[in-house]
Fold each of these.
Amino acid sequence: MSNNQSNDPNQEEDVLTNRQGHPVTNNQNMRTVGNRGPATLENYDFIEKISHFDRERIPERVVHGRGAGAHGYFEAYGKAGDEPVSKYTRAKLFQEAGKQTPVFVRFSTVIHGTHSPETLRDPRGFAVKFYTEDGNWDLVGNNLKIFFIRDAIKFPDMIHAFKPDPITNLQDNERFFDFCCNSPESFHMVTFVFSPWGIPANYRMMQGSGVNTYKWVNNEGEAVLVKYHWEPKQGIKNLAQKEAEEIQATNFNHATQDLYDAIERGEYPEWELLVQVMSDGDHPELDFDPLDDTKLWPEDQFPWLAVGKMVLNKNPADYFTEVEQVAFGTGVLVDGLDFSDDKMLQGRTFSYSDTQRHRIGANYLQLPINAPKKKVATNQRGGQMQYRVDLGGNQNPHINYEPSLLGGLQEAKQEGKEFTPYIEGKLVRESIDRQSNTKQAGETYRMFEDWEKDELISNLVSGLAPVDSRIQAKMIALAEEADEEYGRRLREGLANASRDGSSQKPLGNKDGDKAPEKAIKKGH
Ligand code: HEM
């Protein structure tokens, strides 16, 4: 029971107030004319309370609505594999062995909304905000290392096809596979998502990846192409469809709960950060384009180099303030890190801050979870919910512009040699040359363990069985092109399903086998 009558001054901080700081003496009854009403319009406390409640929700993220988050730190090794990391990047957070940088991580599912089950077949988001001494760096990744498409202009169509039908509000395999069979670059990702890799057992036992190709720049202004990967020290574990259904029947928040409870118990999850590095260039000797995010970089040619580890050791203090309002973006880089020409990365980089200005508001970077942990001094002023009065530094607060002889903010000095790539070419609307849409899907299929192959075929068959036969035929053709056995098993499975009859289900399988009880050691 609350006791807001207490005279103990030490209790004062527990006294309920309204947002104007007025003590609330009666939170059970609104002010009325007599105890049976009616209510009056000057009822400030009541109207304040209800009208704030009416505005409790902000727009849900257009994708990745459901998430869980935690605070922690990143600790650098000072090396990339056996080499000093400074050979590749001058980014300060990586340089010194043992150097710690605070982080906030948000894991998520992609397609369904804020309270959807966490057992669904879907990629998982793995977004990390590093609060570095040079300002923030966001590494906005997924659990899988590749993606469905390679050109950002296709993203809204892809998401429309994957999200529920605009009329029935049901997710529909026909729409999903319709998009995928007509976007053959998606077949590698479809192969992962319909295997057990499409349902990680929880957030602690999944990998992470930056997916897109970035650049690292060293002190001499020289760049390399780089891909980022997170490896969980807890091991990797994925679920068979049936296991996921069993969990979902009793708990559709299992991944959030698993993360929260582990951190409360003091079992802090850890991931190692590894990079793959390639010299900056087109690499015509490869049968894929290094800027194509539907491809893995073969590990034997581009070894994984460990650069540090991340530990998550603190749960959010408030879900909405931190997990809901956190805003990550691929444009948020620090000195020593750069973009590549990867067309997806470039499209994403516009999209994130654009949506956040809408979702959270123009001043979203002032929220504590999004603000850097170093001094911010800018000439940007105003906008909804602006509250900072110290944005301009101390010199001369009247000067909210630059350049000036009267004080105000000065440009920073360039540290290290600037990276100035030379770019020349015709403006075109064209796909890349080396598409190689199915080769790696075949390699991935052959790398799967037997139970993973069985699950993949079973999940694809039950997903495809109810859909238009033209879509089925195109999907089978893609599987055949990837691997003879993969194609044959899918064709036979669909032929059997059409004999048995089958019903439409959300993305997933009808009666998958139970997966062996084990953590999978090796990532893909
Ligand atoms: C969230 C756009 C591709 C990972 C989002 C959001 C948008 C978006 C608008 C919501 C952000 C917010 O409301 O704060 C795009 C576009 C893409 C794309 C236009 C392609 C052109 C990808 C890829 C990945 C990815 C390839 C994986 C590497 C994420 C993650 C989140 C997210 C993890 C959730 C971040 C969080 O937890 O707040 N994306 N995305 N996206 N996206 Fe993408």
Amino acid sequence: RLRMGEYYSYSVLSTWLERIAENMPDIAKLIKVGTTIEGRDILGLKFGKDTPDKKIVVIDAGIHAREWAAIHTASYFINLIVNGREEDPQIQNYLDNIVLYIIPVLNPDGYEYTRTDKTNPRARMWRKSRSPKACAFDGVRNSCCMGVDLNRNFDFRFSEIGASRYPCSEIYHGPSAFSEPESKAYSQFLTSLKGRLEAYITLHSYSQLWIYSYSHRKFTYAPDIEETRRVAAKAVQELGRMYGTKYRHGTGPEIIYAFSGGSTDWAKETLKIKYSYTIELRPGYEGIIEWNGFVLDKNQLIPTAKETWAGVTVVLDEVTNQW
Ligand code: 0X9
Ligand code: ZN
């Protein structure tokens, strides 16, 4: 059992997931999405008894290495389901009526690298995967750097906008769509759920935003936009009721910036999911981008996770209550 409100190494988190699956086989199963470039297993838990008629919801976090609050939030959700289900009929209802996958760290190599910040202070702000160096001539010299922004590597309008072809960029999209083992494995995992996957939620930080498709172009919306927007509006309202945290909702280009190659647009488009959301957690964003927005004070971790759960339950309720 892990105490919430703390950050843990990927190996501690992995062992925790394994123990949960061992000790509660009737509610949780360990799943392996794939293997990272450095050989780590991308692990998650599958909650609820799987029967073919049940709708599926997938929640992930940590595709960006430095977004520790997102990883904590996904871990908190797992802890809540495992340890809070007996007192919470709403959670019991989810376990009975849907299948919920939670993958707390999609980019464990990057996450572990950010945890080496004690010896390498710059490491804490790492965003990408840890794929080997690639080189490109940037106009001045041939520059070589490690890592791909996995949230630019999905096969939706790959490389079109808000992504870079230079390996030294923070938003390097990689040589081709799904060139990276992490994004490729994850796309195959999500594809295997096609038809029953009703909601996909990816947790990021920060800016306090609830984002839906599409991300590449302003005023360009995916199918079910009215429904998507209605549920997003309700989710941010519920989220805000807890501590007064103010979220905005909209498409990326409307409320933050345009980009392509992200997981939610790909999932929405390819898998025809009804609800596909990117959530940017605390802190808020006030005109200037503070570098340390990714370093959320530990005392904010639990409130952040709790309010996010309040928003996410709006989506889970939609999925649970429609047949
Ligand atoms: O840029 C990203 O990949 C995400 N933001 S982050 O700061 N966590 O890196 C997603 C931003 C969502 N924006 C759009 N959908 N345009
Ligand atoms: Zn992110």
